[in-house]
Structures are given as C-alpha cells and as structure tokens.
Amino acid sequence: MPNSTARSALGASPPAQTVAPGDPPAVRLLGPIEVVGPAGPATLSGTRQRALLGLLALHAPMLVPRTRLIDALWGEDLPRTAVKTLHSHIARIRQALDECGLPGILVTRDPGYLLAIAPEDVDAHRFEAAVRDAQRDLADGPADRAAATLRANLALWRGDAFADAEPLGWAAAEVDRLHEQRLTAFADLWEAELELGRHVAAVGELERLLVAYPMRERLVGLLMLALYRCGRHADALEAYRRLRAHLAEELGTDPGPDLARLHVRLLRRDPTLEPVGSPAARAIQERQAPPGQTPAMSTPMPVPAQLPAKAGHFVGRAWPLGELDGALDAGDRPGVVVVCGPGGIGKTALAVQWAHANAGRFPDGQIFVDLRGDGPAAMTASEAIGHVLTSLGVPASRIPADPAGQAGLYRSLLHRQRVLIVADNAGSAGQVLPLVPASAGALLLVTARSRLDALATHHSVAVVSLDALHHHEAVTLLRRLLGDARVDGEASHAGDLVELCGRLPLALRIAAAKLVARPLRPIGDLTRELGGDNLLDGLSVEGDSRSVRAVFASAYRVLSRPAARVFRLIGLHPGPTFTGYLAATAAALTPPEAGQALDELAAAHLVAEVAAGRYRFHDLIGVYAAECARRDEAPEDRVETVRRLLGWYLGVAGAANRLIDPGRDRVAPPDPPDPLPFEADAQHALAFLDGERDNLLPIVRYAAQDGPAQHAPAQHAPAQHGHPAVAWQLTYVLTGFYDSRGHWTQRVEMCRWAVRAATGRGGDEGLMRSGLGVAYIMTRRFDEALDELHQALELMRRYGDQRGEAHAYNNIAVAYAGMRRFDEAIEAYHEALTRHGAQQRPLGVALALNNIGDAYVRMGRPELSLEYLDRALAASREIRNARLEAASLSSLGQAHLSSGDIDAALARFGEALAVREQTGDRRYAADTLNHLGRCHLARGDRTAALDQLRKALRLSQEIADQHLEALSLRDIGRVYLRGEDFTAARGYLKLALALRIRTPDPYETATIHRDLSDLEERAGNPGEARGHRDQAIGLYRKANASAEADALAAAQAPVTP
Fold first, then answer.
1. What is the pTM of this model?
2. What's 318-465's CATH class?
3. I need a surface site. Which of 399, 450, 848, 993 has the fewest CB within 10 A?
4. CATH, domain range 1-196
C-alpha cells in the first residue's frame, strides 16, 4: 500500500455529515469510512468492522464470500475463532446500520454477505465511473468537460481510502488500486489542463505531486511538457535528467520509451509540443513548410488506428468496463481478455468503447479484426494473423507461409510494443491462439459467444461475461434513441418495451429504429404488437439482415444434436429457471447426458448458470427456443414433453410434501422421479423448493389453462395443453412449503388458479377454496377469506367430505380470530374439534386444541388456554408431528407471557424455535423470534430484545412476509421508545405503519398509532400525540377491540371535578 505521506500530497476535502430524509444512503470509503442514513451516521467500532463494511460496500451489490472476508481481515494471522468473530462483526454492523435508519441492507446469502445498495451510493464507485467518463471525454476531445469531471470527483477524497481501517491481503490490494486510480485521475486532469493551455498552473501542481511520487514517468512527462510550454526549456530537460538519475540509482534502469521519445522531441524543439495555435508553433511551421505549401502541424509516424466508430448512445456497463480496466491495471496482467455473452448483448460495442477510451495506453497501434466466427466465412487462424501482420506494416510478400513463421514474426514485431489487438466475433480458441502476444505491453481483446476456455490452458486469460442491461440502463438507451419527451410521454409502455426486448441492446435498437421510422407511432402500439405471438418477427428491420432471430439461429445451428434437442424442449418449460434433472426429463436423457448438453449450451451462452446446477434462458433466447420446438418437433412430441415436465413437478413436489408436511395426504401424486433432485429429508426438500419457487406459480398457471393459452406465453404451448388436475394437486402438495417459507402474495395467485382448475370437481373445488381462504388469511384479507371458506364448507357438506368440513371449520375460525371475533372463532374451533374427534383424526384434534388455546390467549384469558395447549402439545408429540409440536410450544409461550411468567415463556419459545429451525420452518421461526424479543423487552433487557427482533426482521424480509416484518419493526420501535431514543423509535414505527398500508390489519395498525401517540406525548408533541390517539381509537373499534378503544379514550378524557 502506498505510504500515507505520499497520499497526503493529493489533498483532501471535508466530510459531509448527513443525508436528506428519503435519500439513498451515503457510503464513503475515500477517507475515513462513513455510512450515513436517514437517522444520521452509523457508529462503527474497531478497524476490522470498518474494513469489513468498506469491503462489502466496495463490491456492492455483489456477494463477497466469507472466506475472502476472513482473508481480508486477518491475512495469514488467522485466529481459530475467525468464523465466529466474523459473524459477530456482521451482527454489530447490522445493528449500526439499523440504528442509522438503514435496516435490512446487509444481507446474508450463502456463501457470504452482500450490501444491498446501488453502486452509485458509494463514493468509490462514483469516483471510478466518473474517471472512466473523463477518460472517454479526453480520448474523444472535449478536454474541458474531462477536466471539470475530474476536478469534481477528485474532491470526493477526504484523505486516504480506508483511512481508519486495516484491510489485509487481497483487500489491501483493492485499496492500493483505489489510490492508483486517484493518481491516474490527477495525471488525466493535468493532461486535460495542458490541452486547454493551462501549463502555468500545471507546473506547481505537478511538482508537488512528484515530491511524493518521484518515479512516476507519466507525471514527469507532463511536467516536462508544462515547463517547455512555459518557456523553461532547460528546466524541462533537467526534469528528465533527474528522473533518469533516480531510476539508475534506485532500480538500475532507464526511463521508458515514451518518455525517451518526449525527451528527444524536446531536444529538437518539436513544434507539435507547442500549444495548438500558439505563435511559436505557427512560426516554426512557416519556417519548415516547403515553398508554396500551406504550413501544417507535423504528425507522428503513422501507427495502426483501426478501431471502428463507437456505438451510438452507449449506456451503462460500468461493471464490465471496470473489469476491463482492472485487467489492464493488474500487476500480473493477462495477455488476453475475453468478453463473452449471447448474441446481441453488446460485446463488440463494449470492446470498442473500452478500446477507444484506452487507446492512449497503446501508442504503438490499435488493430481491429473481425474473425466472423459465427458465420460460414469465418477466418482461419492463418488469415487472422496475416491481417494483423499487414496492419503492422508487413508487405504480403514478406509474410511467411507456415504458421510457425507467421507467429514468430508477429511476436518479433510486438516485442516491447504497446499494441492493442481487438479480435471480434471469435468462434473458437484456435482462431485467436496465434494472436496471443508475448510482449507484456500488448493486449489481445477478444469478443466471443463462448468463454473460449481452451485459451486458459495455454495463457493467462481474464473473462468478462456480459448479461442483459439493467432496467434503468435499458430505459436510458431508449431515451437516447427516441428522445426524453417521447419516452416520458409513455413511461409505462417504454418500461414494458424494455422488458419485451429482454433488455438486449440489439433488440432495443431494432425496436427504436421501428419507432424512429414512424415518429407518430405510439410506443404502446409497438408494445402491443410485440406482446402477441410474433415477438421475434417484430424485432427485425427491413434492409438489415442482423435480426434478433438471425443472431440466435447462428448459435443454434452449430450445436450438437443432443444439445439442440435439450435447448428446444426446455423452451416448452413455462418457468424462468430449470435444473439438469428437468432437462433430462424434457429430452428423455439421463442426468449426466443432460449435464453435458447444458455445459455445451452454457459455453455458447444460450443458457446461463444462475446457481449451482440451475440455469435460465435470456428472455428472448427462451422465446427462440420455444420457436425451435414448434418448428422442429412434431405436435405429439411437444404434448408428450409437456406431460413429462408437469408430471416431474408433481412427483417431485409430492415427495417433498411427504418430508415437509407428512400429515397433508389428501392427494396421492404420481411416484417421484428416480433420482430425486434432493436428499430425502425436510431441510433439503425445502431448500430445493426454495430454488424452484419462481417456477411454481408459472407451472400451476400453465397447467390450469384448459384451452388455448390466453394468458400463458404463446410460444410455450401446443394449441391445447390443459392439465387442470396437475394444477390443483400441485397447489395442494405445496401447502407445507408455503406455510414454512411464506411468500403469501404468490401463494394467493397460485390458489386462485387452482380454484379455477378444480371448479366443478366437487370436494376438490372445496379443498382448493379452503386453501385460497388460508392464503387470504395470511395476507390479512379476512373478508375474502371468509367468503372462500364458507363456499368450501358448503361444498364439503354437499359431497359428504367430513374431513374437509372439519378443516373448513378450523380455517373459518382462524379468520374470525384474525378479525378478533373470538366468540365465533372458539365456536367454530369446537365444531372442528368435534368432527376430527368423531373421525379419530389425532392430527386434526391436536390442531383444533392448539387453536382454541391460542384464541383464549389473544382474548386475554390465558388461564383458560393452558388445559387446551397442554393437551395439544401431548397429542402432537404422540403423533410425532414436529411442526404442530412447535406451534403448541409457541402458544404456551404466549400464554405464559400474557400471565406474566416470563421465565416460563422464554423456555417455551426457546423450545419452539429449536424445533422450527430443525424443520426449516422459517416463517414461524421469525414469528417465534418476535415473541422472544417481546419477552426480553418485558424483562427490561433491551439489548437481548433488539438481537432477537433484528433476527426476526431479517428473516421476515427474506421470506417476503410483510405482516411479520411490520410486527418486527413495531417491536424494535418499542425497544427504542423504552430507552427514550425517540428519533430511532419514530423511524421504526413509521416504517411499520407504512407496511400496514400493504398488509391492512386494523388492530395492529391501531397498536402502532397508540405507540406513536405515546412517543409524541413523551417527546413534547401533544398535537401529534392526539392525532395518533384518535386514529388508534377509531381503528380499535373497527377491529372489534372496544375494550382497547375505551381504555385509550378514557386515558385522554379531561378530568372533571
């Protein structure tokens, strides 16, 4: 790491102290590490905590593995407790972020952690992006804009980066890289200032920098030029002499060739060194110009400058541009960088953009060769190296005929030369292998659809993989192509168009070209056209052969037969991701055979691996895959493939259900596939379904549609594809998964499709309506729940389904309890209990007993609950149902807490949490953590309360359960209110209140208003206190909680004599 004395020569600016309410967080790494949220700055203690947060911010929003973080914090001096200590640091950082108003931004995700913030919220990212912009401006000519950008962003530095932290190992190198970029930015700034004629000011600044960095040749060169332009010719030559002497003494070497050439030009008083247009430059030119000719500025020796024009309206790509910069700046710089990605993703545009911005770093030439790797006229390796040799000035007659001779001549010409070779559109590693330079100063930049992994067996290769643009980047591209006014006038349709184009640059440019050709055509009109059955037909422009379909077809036609078949048959899968097991099922292959095919597809960037063994299509490639299935597969084969896919899902989900929720046995799904895609225990089954969650709703929806696909994407289906039994049976066997994991908004929609699929099927319809009613309960939509549940009860009675009738009564009671209609709830629970007992169903009996006890607790009658809850616990243990056992333990904990027996409550909640963690029941684990937090608060232990409640908050956010999240936020607010930290308390209570807009619950909303009223009263704001109190009273009455409303009203009534 450069020494701090040297860094201090670069100057510093003072820190800012706050961000406005509603603004994103401000994370500052360019100086002492600071994080500022809506509630003020985060309080971080210790150098390792600051280093840890800084490293997560430096990589935000990307995940950083735990092993990398441990190496960065301890280096080789690794303690035995490193993992435990890392977890402790993470917990303390989370607490600090929570307290400054930034809850939930530090996310745990295997195998590490990430900071869920935008890169632009971090000053280091803004600085690096601004420097890249300035370098592009400097290369293109507008030096004044480059200088202004550099000055503004160099002011972000408040001292040394990570000034109050001590990262080690690779992390220290990251910090060194930031300082190196800062120094480069200063050099770029004074290069721009010299172009603008500000050489007098440059001298002092450059001399100050060289005191700290005396051997920086670029700075010396800029100083020599500035001195020369100030008329200080001798001082300019002396600066060179000093550097040469210093290098000889310290390193035993001479200045590099660039500086040596500048020295020679100074000795010769080269007129091109004068500021353009200066009198001295004009006088020298006039003396040197031949008689009768107009003087012209002399030019350097011609070098190859073959880069094509940059893509118009290039946007985004900050991360891959940064990766390219990093590859160039790395100490062990690779000789080859491969930019890979699917066709139309913008590989060439990125490579050319970066090459133009960095052309100055390759003064001996920039060569561009189109290898035509995706077409029938692909260049051979010999043709490619011949093109490059010709570009380097070798006459065709002198190019050796044999490959070895060509490669030897190529290496000789590039020796000690700084040349950039852009090899575009490579089809194989063999095409570019002879072009790999041996010289450390040259770089081969390759674009290809595959990673060209074979290159890495011979050479050091850096790979930069491109994906689709981010949504906001794609909208920005559309703005630049169509104009702000047109996009702003149809912002919603513009967003839809971006997604229909899959955020693929080629597709967006084609769509924009169609709109530019018809200035009066609404964007929405094109969106509706593309939203039909002919999306790929619509993404082509007459007269341009490079349509989206043609780009994809060029990759498809070179696939092996097994890979091509997997590609098109997986196109019939309605979901966004798939595993090798599903691919094997679709194509009737073994899993190893399917794995080989997927490896080939991934290498060609026709699929992307998004997690271990899980893949996805880019949106438009998925459309093309389905198109290939319709074209290349017989209708009966497509129908059979869909049948296999749906059967696989039902069999796998049924097997998972038997592990997760064994008492849910009213559906007998087909035998599971062999092998199963998970180990045969509940935890692994839940983890597998977590990975499948984004597929489950599309599968149910697709199966439920029993005729022409009016709602499913048209590319997925033969004309008739309904499998309604699969839809409702799959929904049923997934009940335990959603009950454990949450995501109830998705579950509501799934149950609606299941009701549609089961309508008219008697008791099956009743079963699905009961499931929909439960989903409505979990989203606090109690009126809709009761409507569905009463219909379910009527169907069960009509078809003599006594077990279903008992469950319908239980669920009706749950809805009544949620509405605080406890008398009706207890009556319905007893109806369920009677029916389950008559049928000798111990699971149903235990469930009803637990729910009756829970209702008494919530009524404020815990003394009546204990008998029911003890019986429920005994029954659940007798039948060995762990999930129901945990529910009974938790209900007993609530009873003890309501009775004031906190020790007993803590014991029961602790037992419940252990069981829920063992079974992977994350939703109810979050609920139990909330209860534990309330117990600790009741004991006055605010630290322990916050620890449990923050765990509950994180878990509820991960499972997208906004009801539980609102409860956690409210209780955290109460903890801060107990400690009279009114600012933090108000922040958390307001966040809870905002969530209640999306998950309406009059009773819970009233409770938040009551807490806010208490807070404002204690904070000296009686008017605001009164407003919240009035709202609480009204909501309590709406929630059938008249006792709470009367008590609150009495508390504010004036006392009469």
1. 0.64
2. alpha beta
3. 399
4. 1.10.10.10
